[in-house]
Request: fold
Amino acid sequence: MRVVVLISGRGSNLRALLQADLPVTFAAVISNRADAGGLAIAAAHGVPTQVLAHQAYADRAAYDGALAQAIDAHAPDLVVLAGFMRVLTADFVRRYHGRMINIHPALLPAFPGLNTHARALAAGVRVHGCTVHFVTAEVDAGPIIAQAAVPVRAGDDAEALAARVLRQEHRLFPTVLRWFAQERVSLRDDGRVAVRLDEDIDEDAALVAPLG
Ligand code: GRF
Reply:
């Protein structure tokens, strides 16, 4: 399975994917920012990198057209958004229907968009987490593939909560990518996600927070 990863920043999720020893080929890492820390991480793992600066394009459609060309040059089976901080055009999203995924630092559909951890604290939720989902035209609203939940602790600030969630992102994202490599995940025609796992569900499993 050939994978192209899109990034904009520090690349800690990219690192988790590259270090997970997955049965996939990372064909390229593409960033819209030249200063993205993830570029050095990709290079250190021998993965070809490319910077496609959005400032050089007249509008979103022009940028997304160029981005699609750059991606398609690597003929990926899956496009992975790992902290790619751009809103995508409907055309672009349609082109990769069922083969583009994103990781979001909240339990969607709660807290789409930015500043999720501060907003979770302000809302007073006791459980927070992260979501891997297929990308659709509406931001952070695509069909959910998998989620990991963490407790919100008394005394948490946004930074502490972000760090707790990020540790789970680094576990969840490689896990989901492995499922793709094993052909366990598909987006059905009705828009729902099928994940084929040989799992024994523990009917009493629960994350309770706070746990007295
Ligand atoms: C992560 O929190 C991810 O969920 C969000 O952007 C952040 C990227 O962090 N989409 P990194 O670049 O992977 O360290």
